[in-house]
Amino acid sequence: MSDGRTFSRRTVGRITAAAATAGSVLLGGAVGAFSVEDGEDDEPAEAATATVDLPPPTTDGDTSVEATLAARRSRRAYADEPLSRADIGQLLWAAQGITEPHPDAVDFRTAPSAGATYPLEVFVVVGTPGVEGAAPGVYYHRRHEHRLERRREGDFQAALQAAGLGQEWIGDAAVDLVVTAIDSRTTDRYGRRGRDRYVPMEAGHVGENVYLQAEARGLATVAIGAFRDREVRSVLGVSEEHRPLYVFPVGNRRGSP
């Protein structure tokens, strides 16, 4: 995980433009980097304005699990080129994709969940260079349709970087995956133990899936947990029911970790 606070030149150039679209983000607010709020609502606050269909995920990779585990690293150097829709789709499938649909019950997913309560949601902040065929904006992953739905239009990476205590890789990456939790889905069954233990455990499962899938596809990512929750929610445009748990900058690799 990373907790640096410096800005790259490329990201500094974005901050002024992003300020207009992220005016609701209060930099240096009173909420701590690891503040926690409970939640219930499972939908983002704004309706979708655009969709991006993603290619079907593959289950036939060229790299073994063992080789991927041995090669896995936190990588913070990103090439200045967009991700393919196949790459972002495969990452999102690895994070929370459906592996066995059950029309009359809960679908099985790529990451385990206590009691199959599945409290996690995944958003994608698409900036520059972004994703092929996707305009800059904040997107929500519709796992059943395997597509992105845009919730906010514009480049919010600089605002997300500011919410992440200025960590430059957030602004340098092609996109940022943001994992939030709606704790009530799990606490309704397991109480406080669900929020304190089961939900963070599930986020860890998702995080390792993202790391391994990125490694297998030759991409770069790093897990970030240092950010101001309220500001991250403001960037995403979601309610307080969402508890931000992870930010994963992702891009094509450039140089060494």
Write a compact overview of the structure shown:
Helix content is 33%, strand content 19%. With 257 residues, it is of the alpha+beta class. A hairpin with a 7-residue loop joins strand 2 and strand 3.
Rg, nearest Å:
17 Å
**Which spans of ≥5 residues are poorly predicted at pLDDT below 50?**
4-13, 15-48
CATH architecture: 3-Layer(aba) Sandwich
Given the C-alpha coordinates, what overall shape results? globular
| Count of spatially separate domains | 1
N→C terminal distance:
13 Å
Mean pLDDT: 86
CATH class: Alpha Beta
- Largest sheet, strands/sense/barrel: 7 strands, antiparallel
Order of strands, widest sheet: 1-6-5-4-7-9-8
Number of helices: 8
Write the layout of secondary structure elements.
Elements (H helix, E strand, L loop, with lengths): L8 H13 L28 E4 L11 H7 L13 H12 L1 E3 L7 E2 L10 E7 L10 E6 L4 E7 L3 H7 L4 H5 L2 E7 L2 H7 L1 H25 L2 E3 L7 H8 L6 E10 L5
Antiparallel strand pairs: 1-6, 2-3, 4-5, 4-7, 5-6, 7-9, 8-9
State the main characteristics:
257 residues; alpha+beta; NADH Oxidase; two-stranded antiparallel ribbon; 8 helices
Description:
The model is unreliable at 4-13 and 15-48 (pLDDT under 50). The chain has a single domain (9-252), classed as NADH Oxidase, CATH 3.40.109.10. The strands form two sheets. Strands 1-6-5-4-7-9-8 form a seven-stranded antiparallel beta sheet. The protein has a two-stranded antiparallel sheet with strand order 2-3. It has 257 residues and is of the alpha+beta class. It contains eight helices and nine strands. It has helices spanning 9-21, 65-71, 85-96, 157-163, 168-172, 184-190, 192-216, 229-236, and strands spanning 50-53, 98-100, 108-109, 120-126, 137-142, 147-153, 175-181, 219-221, 243-252. Helix content is 33%, strand content 19%. The longest helix has 25 residues, at 192-216.
